[in-house]
Amino acid sequence: MDSNGIAEKQCLEDDKDLQFLRSGGNLLKVRSGSWKKPRYYKLQDDCKTLWHESKKTLKSKQTFSVEDIEEVRTGRQTDSLKKHTEESVEGRAFSILFKSQQKSLDLIASSEEEAKKWVDGLEKVISNMKNLTPQKKTEHWIYSCMRKADQNFDNKISQKELKSFLRDINIEVDEDYAAMLFQKCDKSQCGFLEGEEIEHFYEILTQREEIEVIYGAYAKTDGLMSAADLLNFLLNEQREDASPNDALQLIEKYELDENAKAQQQMTKDGFLMYLQQPEGLIFNPAHKSVYQDMNQPLNHYFISSSHNTYLLEDQLKGPSSTEAYIKALLKGCRCVELDCWDGSDGEPVIYHGYTLTSKILFKDVIKAIKEYAFKTSEYPVILSLENHCSVEQQKIMAQHLISILDSALVTKPLRDQMPTCLPSPEELKGRFIVKGKRLDKLEDMFSEESKTAEEDSVTEEEDDEGDQEDQEKKSTKTKSLKLAKELSDMVIYCKSVHFRGFEDSRDKQSFYEMASFKEGEAVNLAEESANDYIHHNTDKLSRIYPAGLRTDSSNYNPVPLWNAGCQIVALNFQTPCPEMDLNQGLFLQNGRSGYILKPSFLRDQDTKFDPITLPEGPWLKNKSLHLMVISAQQLPKVSKRKSSIVDPIVKVQIYGVPADTTVVETQYIQNNGFNPMWNENFQFNVRVPDLALVRFLIEDYDSTSNNEFIGQYTLPFNSLKNGYHHVPLLTEKGDHLSSAGLFVHIMVVDAE
């Protein structure tokens, strides 16, 4: 296939929106109140790259890939557009948000109709790219690299250009091998490759020797795989409970050759296609949707939670932004933090108090939360209020919460009588719960006396949790906080209280009262009093937050806190790190709902479970994981230098109870990020699989300094699939590396 064929297949020639994008046009680019300049944008012929005019004389890159776009957002929804444009341009404004740290592109079209064409067109292009098969993505990427290597634009590849191309796709080969490869494809012996010779070169390059071996072992029907052969593979290798009809459905779905499909057979290409689709990935597709019981009390779930959600960077001088809330919510976060302070003009603001972080309006944050709360998950969002406001501005906070969130805000118990336990995620679908201080007990809502007696708008209340965090930044005495009744009355199921020991909690703490624990205190309790902590968390919520000394927004390991049954283990979502990988790995399951049902031994009030001592009990399931790391495909470069080729090494990490926590690593492969092969075997014994996570990490090996991150993927141990599977890879920020992957064989059996 020639390079133009790729573009023709991806661009729908008769699509008016795409034709409009390919013609291009002027848009007003907005950076600030004074910087608003017209720039020309157009979609290039490959239908995956946008070109834009730049006035910077030294700017070398004037394009960006559609794959780098996270979202196209209509209207004045970014902080920049809200701040620097008038409401009158609402219908003409739109923003392109990127997966990387790159700033959003804020644009204004000349008319609402034109803005709609840009947005519709871009969304179609993004959708087209997402729906490409893995083979098409590989094909597209390789041909685009070939075009780049074809320096004189003659649609031919010379031997010198071939060597350059191989470096671009992350392979370093010696001169002899490059010459041999070139001569093998140069059948016309004219000194360059073109047409069918380039296609032959592509076939050699993308040959998967390991797939051929597996396919050959099961393709017993005239060199092809019949439905019976495929069923044999599914039963014996993949350990699936498959039927003949399942095999036929896979052939119908993924076989590319119509003749083979008519014979109910699968070719090698169809087999590879199946292994690269959801059925062939390592994550159990049954766990992709909500599969757990969602009708238990909130405290029976791990809840995806963010700390200082408003920050995009560090804790001292970085920007606060509504965008940070949007990003966290789209990642499935279900508990966000709002650090509220008095603002000018009577409007409360959110920022990190006593620091130089920028300020955003409380009402803008609530609007953004309402807009994005339920796009990824329909289950409830907890608004964790750190309230430092005066009574007057607390009343304004209450007004904004009611006017913006309306009936979605929980302002009274779900039933007419005093509850005895927390409601379930299912009962609270689409609702917002306020976590904060309350003047009285929830029981008082059902007292006749309280309905007439509580006339005062404020009272003295000790500021507990907020000042615990602030004490690490300033050395002043804990002050009393005057609390507005209007705000107090919104706190129904998550009343903030001090923790004064497990005995005190057992005697005095109600189910709707919850304590927040500093990371250090929580880790000590989880290590030294694990079983007491677990009992505490069987009927109460606990929130953990990072130490104030983490001014760089770094994170702590959440696993020991989950092992102790803590539900709201709040992390700095803005910081790419292994700890966030673990968080996203745990919450990858159950439909990315942000709620994971805790194992039964963390919900049982009589449980004897202790993650440190591991006494005998039903939690000891003793599984043996046999893992073969086979190969990787199309790993990205970690350095922009053309001559830099990665030396990939794979690390496999088990996180869980201390007895299960371990790491192994392969040898490194020199100078090959395109198709490295390891074929290395490992075995792990996992005692408590219900609490285990598996992390696959690929790094660029360096003998003289720290290895550099290439990609990773984390998932629950119980979501592993047996057999041959591809492992998708994510960037440090959690975005998919579209063509890259790891290929492994998994077998989980009962340990002897």
TrEMBL record:
Q: Which residues form the PH domain?
A: 20-127
The record describes its membrane topology as: Peripheral membrane protein
Names of the cofactor(s) = Ca(2+)
Bound cofactor: record note: Binds 3 Ca(2+) ions per subunit. Two of the Ca(2+) ions are bound to the C2 domain.
Among the GO molecular function terms of this UniProt record, one is: calcium ion binding
Annotated region (Disordered) at: 445-480
**Which portions of the chain have biased composition (kind: Acidic residues)?**
455-470
Q: Which UniProt keywords apply?
A: Calcium, Cytoplasm, Glycoprotein, Hydrolase, Lipid degradation, Lipid metabolism, Membrane, Metal-binding, Repeat, Transducer
**Active-site residues (renumbered):** 307, 352
Q: Which GO terms describe its cellular component?
A: cytoplasm; plasma membrane
Biased composition, class Basic and acidic residues, residue ranges: 445-454
For this entry, list what GO says about its biological process. intracellular signal transduction; lipid catabolic process
Where is each C2 domain found? Answer: 606-731
Q: Where do the PI-PLC Y-box domain residues begin and end?
A: 487-603
Q: What is this protein called?
A: Phosphoinositide phospholipase C
Q: Per UniProt, where does Ca(2+) 3 bind?
A: 308, 337, 339, 386
Residues where substrate binds: 29-56, 435, 437, 516, 543
The major lineage groups are: Eukaryota, Metazoa, Chordata, Craniata, Vertebrata
What enzyme category does the UniProt record give? hydrolase
Every EF-hand domain range: 137-172
Reactions catalysed according to its record? a 1,2-diacyl-sn-glycero-3-phospho-(1D-myo-inositol-4,5-bisphosphate) + H2O = 1D-myo-inositol 1,4,5-trisphosphate + a 1,2-diacyl-sn-glycerol + H(+)
Localization per Swiss-Prot or TrEMBL: Cytoplasm; Membrane
Binding of Ca(2+) 5, residues:
700-702
Please list the residues that bind Ca(2+) 4. Answer: 645, 647, 671
Glycosylation site residues: 188
Under Enzyme Commission nomenclature, its number is 3.1.4.11
Q: What is its main location?
A: cytoplasm
